[in-house]
Design goal:
The chain is of the alpha+beta class and 257 residues long. The protein has two domains: 79 residues; 144 residues, Mannose-Binding Protein A, subunit A (Mannose-Binding Protein A, Chain A), CATH 3.10.100.10. The chain has four helices and eight strands, in the order ααββαβαβββββ. Strands 1, 2, 3, 4, 5, 6, 7 and 8 form an eight-stranded mixed sheet that branches. It is rod-shaped. 21% of the residues are buried. Bound molecules: calcium ion (2 copies). One calcium ion binds next to loops.
Length: 257
């Protein structure tokens, strides 16, 4: 009897064991559920933050693109208002498109761009100015070019001494005339003023060094061909100047529609 009681007290009742095991299992499930919920909550926070960040970035990128677009639009509008005097209306005209090949303030003619300065300086300073614009003092290659230039110069001159430097000099050797690209002057394409005392005369009264640079203008009494408009002059004299450079083909094509 006592043994039976002792045996009974030493054993865990089957129902009690089952309850304990069930509680343990329920606790484990709750913990697992809690962990899963925590992970889901964390994932939801991460997704929300990523979404918010992506939205912010998209908004920021759109703002940047909008600002860039406005800048390009402003630039094109400014160019179309200032650089394009004329645009072709038909596609076939684009072949000989006369528009938008020269920078603002430059004049286009025969595949070249010309700049007639408003200020005056000596020959070397004038040349440096032209070179800073990726050009040089003008070199005259044909009678046609001389006609264009002399007509423009005559329109711009305010008085007889208001002449323009061109890119011709005999500063290396007296009487040997060279253009700024080091090519020699073709005598059949020279347009010296012809009068009682013909140019070039290397006159030394104004400067003992003589006259080694060439300016273009017009004669007071035009008894001769008006194309003959070149005078040699002291390179230190202050004159306006003509810069020349090749036109920049297709540079403004986008705005020429
Ligand atoms: Ca000379
Ligand atoms: Ca002279």
């Amino acid at each position: 009897m006592s043994r039976s009681q002792g045996d009974t007290e030493g054993e865990v009742p089957a129902s009690k064991h089952t309850n304990s095991s069930r509680r343990s299992k329920v606790t484990s499930e709750r913990v697992a559920l809690l962990v899963v919920c925590s992970l889901l909550a964390a994932a939801a926070i991460v997704i929300y933050r990523l979404s918010a960040f992506a939205h912010f970035q998209t908004k920021k990128n759109l703002q940047t693109l909008r600002e860039e677009y406005e800048a390009v639009k402003r630039n094109l509008t400014e160019r179309s208002n200032t650089v394009m005097p004329k645009c072709p209306k038909h596609p076939e005209e684009i072949i000989n498109d006369p528009c938008m090949k020269c920078d603002r303030g430059w004049e286009q003619h025969g595949g070249k761009c010309y700049y007639f300065s408003t200020g005056s300086s000596n020959w070397e300073q004038s040349r440096q100015f032209c070179q800073r614009t990726r050009g040089d003092l003008v070199k005259i290659d044909s009678t046609e070019e001389q006609i264009f230039l002399v007509n423009r110069v005559r329109e711009k001159m305010k008085h007889l001494e208001d002449m323009f430097w061109i890119g011709l000099t005999d500063s290396k050797e007296e009487g040997k005339w060279f253009w700024v690209d080091d090519s020699p002057l073709n005598t059949s394409l020279s347009f010296w003023v012809s009068r009682k005392q013909k140019e070039p005369d290397n006159w030394t009264k104004e400067n003992p060094d003589g006259e080694d640079c060439v300016r273009m203008g017009k004669e007071k009494e035009e008894k001769d061909n008006y194309l003959k408009s070149w005078w040699d002059k002291s390179c230190k004299a202050s004159q306006r100047s003509i810069c020349e450079k090749h036109e920049e083909s297709g540079r403004y094509t986008l705005t020429c529609v």
